[in-house]
Amino acid sequence: MADLEETPVDLVIHARRVFEGAVSDPQRFGPVAADLVRLARRAGPPEALAVALRAVAWAQRAQFNAAEAKRLLDEAAAVARRHRLSATLAEVLMTRSSVKQELGNITGARRDLDLASPLVSGPRGVELIFQRAVLDQNVGLLAPAADAYRVVLAAPTTGRFLVAAGNNLALIEAQHGRYADALRLLDQAGRIAPRVGPSQVATVLQSRAWVTVHAGRLTEGLRLFEQATQAHEAAGLPLGELYVEYADALMDLRLIPEAASAARSAADEFRISGVPLMGAEAQLRVAQLALLSGDAGDAETAAGAAAQTFRRQRRPTWTARATLVRAEARLRAGAATADDLRQARRVCRRLEAQRTWSYAVDAYSITGRIAALLGRERDAVSALRHAADLARRLPVLVRMRGSVAAAMAASLTADDGAVLAHCRRGLNDLSRHRTALPSVELRALASGHGAELGQLALGVVVRNGSAMQALSWMERTRAAALLAVEPPGGVDPEDLEKLRGIHAELETVASAERVVGTPDPVSARLKSLEDRIRRSSWRRRSPDRAVDTTLRPAQLRDRLGSRVLVEYAVLGGTLIAVVVERRRSRLVTLGPASAVLDRMRTLFFALRRMTQSLPESSLAAARLSADSRLAALRGLLFDPLGLPGGAELVVVPVGHLHGIPWSALWDAPVSLAPSAGMWARTRAAAGSRPGGGPVVLVEGPNLPGASDEVRRLRGLYPDAAALVPPHSTAAEVLRRLDGADLVHLACHGWLRADNPLFSSLVLSDGPLTVQELQTSGAAPHRLVLASCQSGADVAYAGNEVVGFISSLLARGTAGVVASVAAVPDVAAVDLMHALHEQLSQGRTLAHGLHAARERIDRTSPAAYVNWCTFSAYGAA
């Protein structure tokens, strides 16, 4: 605090130093400035009071208290006018201009700069140029803003403006697609920022993260956002603006729930703080995320509200972007009109004129789609081709959107060869992008970027009737995320142990279910820890190697032998299948996929009832319902294929059809796989394994049937290693899994549909998750999972699945037996014993399970459920 004996001149000098401090470190200097205001009101000269008020206002502005900042600046301006302090008034007006922008008053902000202009002289002219550039940037006039920032950077000026001008110019360069130039500017600003203050350090880190993401380096961008978050917290800055830009990164990674949470947090923070400038930008992200979530109605409403706000703020470029999102929402809902097309065309012209190429690509693509919907084919082709041309040299995700546009244009002109060429190019880009991602979760999500390309190409080959071409394109967009296996490690083992500790606090099955339900404190801690484990997996090194998904027909037939492959796909809502036999292949159209899903849902409702304590009449009704649904599924999925009776099948489902109990639909051995290519890999692994490795039997806790199961299996495998509670811990099971020939796990299983990486098998010390299994790299040759829902991998867009089965097969396990539903514990013992009797005689899992199922007494409801829901995966 200033000394009361300071002279008026000293107090003014001190006030100016405090203002510079408030700019660099508002958390530290805000209280100092407030004390100085009190002193200046009592004893100081007017200039000191005006400058001190400006300092407090800046600190309030940094906390998004824009209304309070404006009130303080209004007072400072009045003091400066009353005492004819022209230079000080100019400074206050320039700061107030920034605050008015944040309040959405663009006209008032421009007026303040115009009022300040005749009062500015000397070095302060640089600040006026800078503030006009900020105003232009916020309304979307990027070219004049960039020119002004270059003037500031060339002028002999202070570090504060060098950092801010370099940072803001970098953001414009990135929007123009010049990412190397943007990062060079941020390097320069980053070297100066620590000398200026922590708020500048945080700002530059945030910008570097955003630019890095838009340059296509997504996981590096995520790491930088974490650093930026820490820098903001250290500087005492609110996180609203960072959340907005973080949402962009999460959107590109298709982490939609996380992106939506970040965008909503930002929108709430700006609404509460009264900062409509950034609030409207956050609202636009909310609209985009509603669109990505499939809620076109909410997207249209949110985008329309954002557009109205931008219009009031006189920000035409931002209005154009919001108008585009609204038009896309109406397109998705099938409600786009000629007026939407006219508006979209105007948006195209504005965004291209601004040279914001990524946004322009989207604008032309959406315009083309609307024109196609309205039957204006020539206009559609022109817009879509222009989108593809603009995207050609942009980052990979934008190039993929350009490939979609080009393929759609070719489809409209019936150029099938061009459709396939553009789809191939886009999927090759996707393959390179996906390979650079460090975790199965991110790679599986990334495959969603290629879903439309896969559909366009599949439509061509199905129309032309080529079964093997159709199979080839199905395989291009199937389970590709699993093939690039990351090395073990990358997750802190202590976090995994903490995860088990928290699960121990959940004590009962009922409380364990609260993990994804009731927001109690233990569940909140668990979610926080799971988020940390996920983020750590995003930071590890990627496999960074190309993955060949090519499946050669001769090689596939050789590995199939006498088996018949049936691979399913969904094309425009219609289920199709490719059937590959020894000497021929066929392409069969089956009908609406929705009919299959409807019967699948009612089947599982009946099976759940059969696991409950119900009257005999209710159980009998459930059994009749289950039999009826199985017959219906058989009629929809197998009967139209003309399969040879008794043939051993290899079935590759699609999407939610992975959850169907396929073994119950066919009276012969059936093996499943996420893709034909992955099944062929397991066949090669099964054939090359010499055998003779250890057998491991694992009993989980609190399952009476598991004890009996392991005891009986020890009679079949007298040399087996048996792990029983309390020794059947996650660490010990993982140690025994790796290199084992056959492992049997009898334990509880928990499916996490919200995040399959945390689906788990319950062992003596807590859950063994899919995440931990991947982290360990453990992969036995064959594995029997006698646990609930352990075979229920979760489907992602782009025909990916994630769960225990897919993770094990990707890491080299050649065969797994698991259930897609909850299974009665005690009733499973007979089935498991019968299965292992077959395995001990050298049979494969598919043959062994088929023979074991034949011996089950299906008159018992519990035995029927086990007969129905267990399936074999892979070829071993």
UniProtKB/TrEMBL annotation:
<dbReference type="InterPro" id="IPR011990">
    <property type="entry name" value="TPR-like_helical_dom_sf"/>
</dbReference>
<dbReference type="InterPro" id="IPR024983">
    <property type="entry name" value="CHAT_dom"/>
</dbReference>
<protein>
    <submittedName>
        <fullName>CHAT domain-containing protein</fullName>
    </submittedName>
</protein>
<feature type="domain" description="CHAT">
    <location>
        <begin position="631"/>
        <end position="874"/>
    </location>
</feature>
<dbReference type="Pfam" id="PF12770">
    <property type="entry name" value="CHAT"/>
</dbReference>
